[in-house]
Specification:
The complex is a heterodimer of chains A (98) and B (576). With 98 residues, chain A is an alpha+beta fold. Chain A has two helices and four strands; from the N terminus they run E-E-E-E-H-H. In chain B, helix 10 (255-271) runs parallel beside helix 12 (297-319). The longest helix of chain B is centred in the N-terminal third of the chain and has 37 residues, at 63-99. Classes of the chains: A alpha+beta (98), B mainly alpha (576). Bound molecules: zinc ion (ZN) (3 copies).
Chain lengths: 98, 576
Amino acid sequence: MKVHVKHWNAVAQWRWNTGNAEEDDEGDVCGICRVPFEGCCPACKMPGDDCPLIWGECSHVFHMHCLLKWIGTVASKQQCPMDRRTWVTAERKVNNRT
Amino acid sequence: MLGLIERYETLIASVGYECIEARVLGTCAARWGASVLGELRAWMADRVVLWMMLPFARGAASVDEAKVMMQGVGSRYDFHLHKTLCDLRTQEIFDIIVDFPDSNAALLDLKECLQRVDQRAELVQALRKFNKKRLLHPGADTKDILTQYVSTIKCLRIVDPPGVLLFKVADPIRRYLRDRPDTIRCIVASLVGDGESGDSLVDESEPIQPLQQPEAENYADPDWTPEPNDAGPDFRAGKASDIVSTLVSIYDSKDLFVRELQVLLAQRLLAVRDGNFDRERRNIEILKIRFGEAALQVCEVMLRDMTDSRRIDAHVQSQTEDVNVMHPTIISRHFWPALETSDIVMPGQFQALQTLYARQFSTFKPDKVLRWLPHLGRVSLALELDDRTVEADVPPLEAAFIELFGGAGAGGEEAGGGDAKTDTDTWTVDALIARVGSVSRSAALKALGTWVDLGVLKEEHRGGEDGETVFRLLHVREEGDEAGRVHVGKSAREAEEELAPMMSAQQQQAEQMRVYWKFIEGMLTNLGQLPLDRIQTMLKFAPGYDRSVEQLGAFMEAARREGLVAVRDGMWKLGR
Ligand SMILES: [Zn+2]
Ligand SMILES: [Zn+2]
Ligand SMILES: [Zn+2]
């Protein structure tokens, strides 16, 4: 017998490629707003490309809007809110992958 | 003579009353399509008044004098006419509501009668009694209860615009609906027009408006009128809400509705095959007006996922021809209702397609990856067998199984290379489950049953009747398997033989129905006895249930023969 697939209406979820290949099912949350990465920051309504992530050299990841808002405050002293190192945006780490 | 009449006045009057009753019952019973009050009054004037002239206005010198003499008895008779009609319509009220809007005239008559005769309490009492007996019982469909409730709202608003009667009648219905597990789903399905059944609870003509919350009385309102004196302390006046607001207000919070809407929309969107979801988009726009933008925000994300998926697919297809049969819907987690998860592993070419597509996706969107939800969606297949081609449109699990029969398992660790053909021709359920991963036995049997029904697989017992159950691929259609074969001029004997495979198909279904027995047993334990269609309605809440009511009937019949259930007057109950 030959099985010919004529049409496959499949379903998938998209995930940010945060480097954690097999993250647990709850997923990671943004360290600033505590909303999952695949959700969107409190200022946005649409997840995904409209509310992207930002990677730091320190390896921390945030919603880009959350980080920019944080960096914009005086209290931040331009530091990563997690480890207090000066924030340096990393080249997107996925680029290293390919 | 006069003395005689006075003595018999009561008797004469009672003859008149009986005459009126006979006339009303004889000419008006079950006649709701036209107003009857007018013709009854004409009959009174023509016949009864003439007849009364003799005893009651005997000595009158003029017509005017006669009128005065007859005023007392005349108004008593007029009152009796209204009371009799009022009693009749009160007894008929449940069916009048069923008949609405054809019974509109009868309701207007009733309204007029109630202004003349104060029998509002009797009407409320009667309707509550009928509702309890005929509507609010486990045998009634939730959809039917809702339909009758909506008609009741419309009818009682005609009879009593302030809504006091409705308030008193509606309360038990609302409480009963609140306790039913499928009420919200029914209302929601009706809100988004469930397509198949045209009878929506909501009139197309009713304007779409935001949900109304019960408001405080507004005495500044020029239309404000004091509440009728039978209103009672709980009665909240206020503007008559639209039907949807009234239905939603059965529950304390609209959140339940919004959640149910999301589930329904998700199911619909994932079922869209032709990429056309304009209807769902339109529904969302309407629901936004009713429930507010914020409540429908996640639905917006769902809709955008649908358009994004198409855009992404167009790009992927432009890059490679290797995945041209695969068109996935890519959804945003956290924005779709919790979809049941499953870790089934798609074998063979399906896995290859998944890998290829995911790679293309990540090339297009370098910061994202795909995670498949393999148990969702549908697959269109053509199975090329030795003597026939079978086309089927199936859930992914069915596709995974048949792929294994097709040789996807060959070459793997389990199947020895040389013997591949025989190895993949016959599978036990356990072996299939082991290859596909987390899937329940009942789901696996259901999936296999699809192929048995299509004459692709055959269920056999290895080593006699008590042996292990296996499923074998029918490379060539088997003798006696009549599925799809065309008979021309067959003899009676042949036709008789044809019944055998039909029977076995039925038995096959009965076998699959056993999975649902525990649901049926549960509902009969809890609800006592149920008619077949009600069992069918409730079974639709069991995962994966897709049998027709006829198939259910055959199964219940089989269960009855085994003494599991008993049936009487169409009501099924546990037979112990
Ligand atoms: Zn954030
Ligand atoms: Zn954002
Ligand atoms: Zn950091």
